[in-house]
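Thread amino acids onto this structure.
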């Protein structure tokens, strides 16, 4: 049975059991402050479990793309070193929202595994929750009794809270679970040791294949448990492990989920995969084929590699793959990007985003490979210098601070530093390195540390967003909770009628005030969390149950929604001018400016930018009225031609925003008429990543300020130049400046010629070598020309020039070719630069250094005389 058939059988089975089959949610989470990635199948249904949204159906099944590389669920370091851990994996799942419970969930699982897939019953074991006295939780006797009708009682194992009580996180829905384990060992191995002894003991052939979670409780922030209003079922079956079981393999990597990718790596690298766990080459191949899946899906869902947040995680995964292939597969050129086509062929039918975004994914990965391989090459030079310094000082341990700087600042893999050091008979200061890592983690935690208390519910009222129609409203606080962070103590509130738009879709959240007759509180930010619109205020009202008046900052809202509406017009104009391959890949919409990222592989020309501006401003002048479809079936919206963004999760009903021919699915706030935007001006266009361009622009008030500022500058220039023809006056100045520069350069050369003769006669004989140490006020370019000439003309020489040109200390060192093996210009200049509080470098024959301390030139001069 192929992996495609295995996946389809699962979906077909649950469809026959009246489950709605839904597509996978994006692997990257855009609007969830608690998670960066979908790390389990239930993530997209979290609001259903919490009661914030009504399920689209009482029974649902799907296959969900998951990523476990950060936080509590982090499998990254295990990947490649065993047969079954992955970064990206598929989770097959079936769900019941207040419909069936334990009995049916257990029966479905058993029937599918044993009758549909044909797994021998004697290979299966199940676990049930044994209870936990500390939380007054009893043994899950119901699950045990239901299992008894399917499997022998001696194959039902009690499991502790760690293994058999599933929790979404520190707080949230949770409940006992029942795991199904499969024993894939040979009959001979089974005869020696019972599978009972190996369940949940990390045996590579006795593995958990399915987890049935029975959601009964909600974990509050204070750690206590409360019963959920309804009982739910949440199951997750590891697709890769299931394929391993059904295809009779002993490793996930031996299944057809991975073998086509492995075959391509073998072809490109010339290395043969043998499947040996400890073999570094095989580990590297497993890392590569795992990581290319994670990175490809993340990019296809809209997350580009970057230096922060989710983008940093994706970059780290990709760089781990590049590092392993560089070290153990001898791949010194980009090649991972060539695996994307194989992945598309394997999984494109089930996950069309791979096909749709294939070119972008390929280009981004190739660009990242190019960049990181250069980082490695540059890092090798730095490591070599560090090793030479360590050996020169008769030390055997590389200093932790510099190794960590290589890792943290320059992105050079620390394990590669270890390997190179070991080859030279050195080690790194492991304890010191770990201490530096811990310091960094503590700094990061301190920046983001936040203690969130439980919600206090005041009164059961409807909680609605009214901000599309009004920016002020009478309201009540329905619930509040305290929040403590590095800036102090604040309160999050949920309002019965909130005009505050919550951050989302690129648009910043609203700010404003919340006030009543006696008190006023600043609304610092508004976000959406688990379906709730949450506003942060700077205190707790004395009477939180009073009537309040909520007011949005009107100026900021006006400018933000103007910028948001203009991004829609910009998107359409870009597609008209550049082509329909253009798709939005990210945006920021605030009151001051807008940023728009889009797929395009070339730098825009000045003509294209001007045409885009012209098209957008034409739409603004047309005074096109907003057509808002506040709740329209997604199918109908798409049929009308609405743009849907890849990587976004849409419901059955959506909001569509239309300005003439511009139609987009969007939840943001917008102007009622394009004329309200005022004027649109692109302020910059550049590269955001491989295949991604970025436009920054302004509109409305900021656009008006921009042109007023330009006008003011023109007037001031005109006054300075004493001419109304500013352009011609500046052209004339440039011509005069060019002429003067040529005269100055000629003068410098004449002066330098005069200096050369004097400097030649100033060399001091030291044995069979010659040393020149000279102070000058010549500029750096002249000094460089002279030093290169002296290097050639004066054999066996070291030339050291100390310059104070323009009041800045500069040291230049030249070493003649016949001495370059014994006297390194770079080492000499680095030593002398300490005296001027500076640094620099170069090659063995020529090096320069600048500094901050001009007075230090005298010390450098005296030190140089002793070379």
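Threaded sequence (867 positions):
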């Amino acid at each position: 049975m192929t992996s495609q058939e295995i996946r389809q059988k699962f979906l077909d089975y649950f469809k026959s059991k009246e489950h709605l089959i839904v597509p996978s949610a994006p692997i990257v989470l855009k609007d969830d402050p608690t998670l960066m990635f979908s790390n389990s199948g239930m993530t997209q249904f979290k609001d259903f479990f919490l009661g914030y949204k009504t399920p689209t159906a009482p029974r649902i099944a799907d296959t969900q793309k998951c990523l476990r590389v950060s936080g509590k669920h982090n499998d990254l370091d295990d990947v490649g070193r065993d047969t079954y851990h992955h970064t990206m994996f598929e989770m097959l799942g079936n769900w019941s929202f207040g419909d069936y419970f334990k009995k049916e969930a257990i029966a479905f699982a058993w029937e599918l595994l044993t009758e549909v897939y044909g797994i021998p019953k004697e290979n299966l074991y199940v676990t049930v929750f044994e209870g936990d006295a500390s939380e007054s939780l009893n043994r899950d006797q119901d699950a045990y009794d239901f299992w008894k009708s399917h499997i022998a009682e001696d194959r039902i194992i009690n499991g502790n809270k760690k293994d058999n009580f599933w929790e979404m996180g520190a707080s949230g829905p949770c409940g006992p679970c029942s795991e199904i384990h499969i024993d894939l060992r040979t009959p001979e191995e089974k005869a020696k040791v019972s599978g009972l002894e190996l369940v949940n003991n990390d045996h590579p052939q006795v593995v958990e294949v399915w987890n049935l979670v029975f959601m009964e409780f909600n974990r509050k922030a204070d750690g206590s448990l409360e019963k959920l209003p309804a009982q739910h079922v949440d199951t997750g079956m590891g697709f890769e492990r299931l394929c391993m079981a059904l295809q009779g393999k002993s490793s996930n990597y031996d299944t057809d989920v991975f073998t086509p990718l492995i075959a391509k790596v073998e072809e490109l690298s010339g290395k043969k995969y043998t499947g040996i766990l400890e073999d570094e080459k095989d580990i590297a191949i497993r890392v590569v084929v795992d990581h290319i899946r994670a990175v490809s899906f993340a990019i296809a869902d809209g997350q580009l590699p970057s230096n922060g947040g989710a983008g940093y995680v994706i970059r780290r995964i990709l760089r781990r793959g590049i590092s392993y292939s560089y070290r153990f597969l001898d791949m010194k050129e980009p090649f991972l990007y060539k695996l994307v086509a194989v992945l598309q062929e394997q999984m494109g039918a089930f996950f069309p985003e791979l096909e749709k975004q294939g070119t972008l994914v390929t280009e981004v990965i190739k660009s990242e490979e190019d960049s990181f391989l250069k980082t490695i090459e540059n890092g090798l030079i730095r490591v070599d210098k560090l090793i030479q310094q360590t050996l020169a000082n008769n030390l055997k341990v590389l200093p932790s601070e510099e190794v960590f700087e290589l890792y943290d600042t320059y992105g050079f893999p620390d394990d590669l530093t270890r390997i190179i050091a070991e080859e030279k008979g050195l080690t790194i200061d492991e304890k010191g390195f770990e201490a530096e890592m811990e310091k960094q983690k503590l700094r990061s935690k301190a920046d983001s540390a936040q203690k969130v208390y439980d919600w206090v519910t005041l009164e059961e009222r409807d909680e609605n967003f009214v901000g599309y129609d009004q920016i002020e409203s009478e309201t009540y606080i329905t619930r509040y909770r305290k929040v403590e962070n590095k800036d102090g103590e604040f309160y999050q509130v949920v309002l019965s009628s909130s005009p505050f738009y919550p951050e989302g879709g690129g648009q910043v959240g609203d700010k404003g005030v919340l006030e009543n007759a006696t008190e006023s509180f600043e609304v610092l930010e508004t976000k959406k969390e688990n379906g709730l619109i949450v506003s942060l205020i700077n205190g707790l009202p004395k009477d939180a149950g009073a009537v309040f008046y909520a007011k949005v900052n009107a100026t900021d809202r006006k400018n933000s929604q103007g910028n948001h509406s203009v991004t829609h017009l910009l998107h359409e104009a870009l597609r008209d001018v550049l082509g329909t391959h253009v798709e939005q890949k990210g945006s920021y919409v605030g009151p001051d400016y807008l940023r728009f990222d889009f797929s395009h592989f070339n730098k825009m020309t000045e003509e294209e930018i001007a045409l885009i501006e012209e098209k957008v401003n034409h739409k603004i002048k047309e005074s096109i009225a907003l057509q808002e479809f506040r709740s329209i079936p997604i199918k109908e919206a798409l049929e009308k031609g609405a743009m849907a963004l890849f990587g976004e999760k849409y419901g059955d009903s959506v909001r569509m925003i239309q300005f003439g021919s511009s139609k987009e699915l969007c939840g943001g706030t917008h102007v009622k008429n394009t004329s309200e935007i005022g004027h649109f001006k692109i302020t910059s266009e550049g590269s955001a990543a491989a295949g991604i361009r970025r436009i920054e622009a302004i509109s409305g008030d900021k656009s008006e300020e921009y042109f007023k500022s330009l006008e003011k500058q023109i007037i001031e220039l005109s006054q300075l130049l004493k001419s109304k023809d500013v352009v011609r006056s500046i052209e004339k100045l440039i011509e005069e400046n060019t002429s003067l520069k040529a005269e100055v350069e000629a003068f410098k050369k004449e002066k330098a010629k005069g200096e050369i003769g004097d400097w030649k006669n100033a060399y001091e004989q030291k044995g069979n070598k010659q040393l020149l140490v000279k102070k000058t006020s010549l500029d750096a370019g002249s000094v460089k020309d002279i030093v290169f000439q002296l290097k050639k003309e004066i054999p066996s020489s070291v030339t050291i020039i100390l310059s104070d040109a323009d009041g800045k200390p500069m040291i230049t060192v030249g070493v003649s070719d016949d001495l370059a093996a014994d006297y390194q210009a770079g080492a000499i200049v680095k030593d002398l630069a300490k005296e001027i509080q500076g640094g620099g470098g170069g090659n063995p024959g020529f090096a320069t250094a600048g500094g901050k301390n001009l007075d230090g030139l005298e010390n450098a001069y005296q030190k140089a005389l002793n070379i």
